[in-house]
Fold each of these.
Amino acid sequence: DEQRGRGTPGLNFERVQPNTLDAVVVPKGYEQAVVIRWGDPVLPGAPKFNFDKQTAAGQAKQFGYNCDFAALLPTHGGNQLLVTNHEYTSETFMFKGYKTDNPTEEQVKIGWAAHGLSVVEVEQVRGSGRLKPVIGRQNRRITMTTPFKITGPAAGSDLLKTSVDPTGTVALGTLNNCAGGVTPWGTILSGEENFNQYWANAGQTAEPVKSRAARYGITSGATSRKWERFDKRFDMVQEPNEVNRFGYVIELDPHDPESMPVKHTALGRFKHECANIRVARDGRVVAYSGDDERFEYLYKFVSKNKMRKGNSRTARRYNMTLLDEGTLYVARFTGDSPPSEIDGTGKLPSDKRFDGSGEWIPLASGNRSFVPGMTAEEVYVFTRLAADKVGATKMDRPEDVEASPKTGKVYVALSNNVERGVTPGKESATEPNPRNNNKHGQVLELTEHDPLSLRFTWWLFLVCGDPNDPNTYFAGFPKDQVSPISSPDNVAFDQYGNLWISTDSANALGINDGLYGVPVDGPERGNLKLFLTVPRGAETCGPIVQERLITVCVQHPGEVDGASAEKPASHWPDGGDSQPRPSVVAVWKPGRHGPMKIGS
Ligand code: FEO
Ligand code: CA
Ligand code: CA
Ligand code: CA
């Protein structure tokens, strides 16, 4: 088995066996340690974390909840800046005695402070891969009250004006930041994903607000969080436009702690999983982003202006405007096999490939709309409605998207879709989404001649699941040798061009989530190897794969059915009878002279 792994630089490790342990499991010969946990200090004056005595003021200076995306950026003095998203809060796990129908104001405000992002300087311990947080000058917390500048063609639109902000240009806070990306100019992009869950009473609004809200899944009555009781901006009857200021890609310059982060309207408004940048030969930049919901779409943005080289503050300031002017596109996929050969089980069609071609359909460019019946501002703010009108392809939950720095091919994680071919009125299997009741997802490989191309070809690289299931596919690699995988979520590349995939919902296979490495080229293409698993109830997020260090975010450990702060299902990472805490973990391979190369 392991012989097949030899010869692929970066992937020479003994694969981890799937398990259900309440632990982070790494390959033999590797070590791991927590970098930072929910509640650990980020800013000066942060109180020591005390699960039973939390305060909103303390949380605003501490590491937030449910870390998802993470980035490590080089900084002065050899340390790195760890930038992390805090996607959402789970109050029943955060507080003992939490009453879902009657949260206290302090609990709600702790929730606001536990969302957002953290910027934390980290120092590598000499001779080890261990990373230690430092209360550095650039440390920062972004929360639900941090001002964001709204930029791009919809900034200042009537659709974005509220009673508190009649200019429609400054929003307070960011929500449900899921995955993200590091830009070539050293800033962070982060997607506001399931923002719909925070707004109440859409059912009592008038048209067209009501049907627009419905298309985004905004709650018709009270929310389960009850935030609307403590801030009227979460009540759509009182503030119908506040929700239109969420659902964007945000950009943060972590090197400048005083800078105001921005929300880029030109990339459209939907449940942005992420945004990842490629630079075209002429210097224009391209951003890919998935709308993570069942039957939603894949998008691409092409900038009008060209990137300025260098990491100076001036270059960064300029480059932070690149995502404000350009053209937004949505993907339409065409399969090359007869639809009759796509039977919904995942059985390969007669050409032995789920593959075909596709095109990027323009939605809007600057103030110009390409969608009949919609203004450009409407396209940017109600992008799902625009994509519906142009016949985009409904996908199985488009998650992270990343281009290989070696080959330029673009990889898209399509997480799962248990409603396909099951829920009445919903679409059945198509060649790019070839299984009905799709529990395990697929990874799509998209080939563009050039990042600016408006046409592409595509091929399903992985059709995930248990390799013993005949209707899974691992790029044609012998399936008796690969690791089982379900629900791909985040993707990353190592320096050798291997793809790394983290998962969210491997419990569909009865195993814990994990991080996998797989070659996308050469004789080992498709030889998927499990590198790490996370504790019970957690998902694996935000992988960073460096030459001698891997980090992952362990999100929502212990979040299994029936568990709560009274009945914790995990005691990771603190052990004993402690409460589980979402954390960032570093993994390395110790050697005589310090960490060795990963997979060497
Ligand atoms: Fe927050 Fe799409 O995962
Ligand atoms: Ca085909
Ligand atoms: Ca995700
Ligand atoms: Ca996820």
Amino acid sequence: MRKKIVAGNWKMNKDFNEGVSLFSEVINMVNDEIIGNQQVVVCAPFIHLNSLFGLKKGYDKVSVGAQNSHQEESGAYTGEISAVMLKSINVEYVILGHSERRQYFGEDNALLAKKTDIALKHGLKPIFCIGETLSERESGEYFNIVKSQLAEGTFHLSPDEFSKLVIAYEPVWAIGTGVTASSAQAQEIHAFIRKEIAAKYGQSVADETTILYGGSCNPKNADELFSQADIDGGLIGGASLKSRDFVDIAKAFN
Ligand code: PEP
């Protein structure tokens, strides 16, 4: 049975004290209210990561993730953070290829393939994001776009390496816009992604791959999205900044 995951992406939000409050609330609510075996992941800005482990109280239904890591292990890359550094404080997950990194920082599939290699080499679990823009959706090109992001970013991996990834399908037109993909639209492309994985790595790897949906997911639409056969949870932006909303989304699996 593949893992169900609800991951929050705080993006560039929350100062230190705000982050402590938000994470503490999430921990307490998850502890009291999550009865299924879904995993809750909090991907916070770098400044928070080390302190979150102290607040976790050893509670393992919540994992800590970063939002980016560099493609080299160390060196003269001012302002960057490496997978080695993240691993040294026990960070478990790292978001790679978020559309905001692709759009504002010029990250392309070739660079993301390198980031994925280094993250895996150091024991991080990448949450690898793919998804089309509005014009790519409207032109009908979205299957090809998603396929090439997936193949160019990850299909150089061995089956064993690939099986450590979480894939997040995030249509760019749905991120932060309040416009959610319908459950049918999301299921259609999730099934397509799983089929592509099966064609490359075989059905059993595909069946075990967790594929998250991201894009204006909220407590009202999570139930329907997460009940689709190929949607194994969500990558949550805006709603992860409110503990009640975030944990209510995670409870869609209860
Ligand atoms: C995201 O940035 O990954 C995301 C899904 O954002 P939002 O939930 O705000 O659309």
Amino acid sequence: TGEWDVDVVVVGAGVTGLTAAYRLHQHGRSVVVLEARDRVGGRLLTEERDGVRLEVGGQWVSPDQTALLGLLDELGLETYERYRAGASLYIGRDGERRQFTGDAMPVSESTAREMDRLTVELDRLAAQMDPLSPWEHPDAEALDRVTFAAWLEQQTDDVEARDNIGLYIGPAMITKPTHAFSALTAVLMASSAGGFSHLLDADFILDRRVAGGLQNVPLELAARLGDRVRLGSPVTRIAWDDAGVEVHTADAVHRAGRAILAVPPTLVSRVTFEPPLPAVHQQMRQHQSFGLVLKLHLTYATPFWRDHGLSGTGFSPYETVHELYDNTNEDLATAGDARGTLVGFVSDVRADELLALSAAERREQVLASVARYLGEQALDPEAYYESPWMAEEWTAGAYATSFDVGSLTRYGPHLRERVGPLAFASSDVAGLGFQHVDGAIRMGEAAAED
Ligand code: FAD
């Protein structure tokens, strides 16, 4: 490696950084991975809380996520199907709770027709897009200058159809209100998952789980990298020129030919660059921001909903908890554990409202919402846990980052642009697998290849 300590310094030991480092290592390049936290995995974390193993961050795998499925295979990790037997629940605009099976939601005939029409239109737009370059979509300019909420209003007067279609991309995916991102970003989300119909289909998009938890992916990668991964090492400063980089932490300087910043775009700006990054890079990252979602786990003595023929799945754009699933651990390690766990999500402005309350009030509101889906038995969980991502210094939101209105066309072409020896990668700049672990792997591999 000549005068360098290593060929490449990777900043961040999330899936993106660890994939990049592992591929470089496999190809005989020397690497060091510097991670701010005292653990690897970034937005993936499997943790025991009140005696229950919980997936606090990302967890589900869908059949289109071939980069993730391939890596799971390579690392020898097993998957199992998410529990889904029984009827699902929907709470409509009229406040009524209705059961349904399959993907035909129990809405009025006219609302169902409008939802079908919007689905066909979003699938059509997504099919016209290469998710790696949404700005090249034939209608990119027009779609990027309207909010997704305004676009939905242009398409239909049916409020419940708009609220439901909006739910699957807004609260459920981008985790921002539909008036805070563009229609082009909505189409990107659909296109990155192989089409909007996939987002509507929980059996597809939330198909499988990883035995032991999805954090096993970064844990296995880190095990293969050994002491090349340095924990508790926030990178504060990077000096660079065309010949290489000097990457500074509080107590060390690592000199290398290249650096890969495998951190969310919002955290790139926390590093001081000498010389500063080009203007367009500094501007671009001010237009990207994290969404906000609370991931809630509720564990009960038994999965009581199953006794009532219910899958535990529930949706409603009108509820505090807009999505609900059975998240009982079903892998071998938990065989014999009779407890049942639900996972629920509270997103964007509803999350703001909850976070303004005391812990006790939050819990009460969440349980009341879950009880509107599953009945009074839901009011008394043995364990209750709220994910802390929005308050964590090295993430500061969830699930991921996205552009404000108009910025995907304006800055998108610079998203994955290298600056001299500095490459930028994360799930949040991915095409396929955008904002998902699959995209993190694709971006890590692309950065290593580069
Ligand atoms: P991160 O995981 O954010 O990794 C970046 C790393 O960089 C972190 O470890 C951070 O500590 C470190 N870092 C930051 N700044 C510095 C610095 N200056 N110096 C050193 N280190 C630094 N995806 C799915 O595929 N399926 C799901 O079901 C799913 N559900 C999710 C649920 C939640 C609650 C959340 C939060 C995310 C979910 N996701 C899901 C998204 C998925 O977790 C992320 O897309 C993916 O893990 C991001 O990986 P990454 O490596 O790009 O970024």
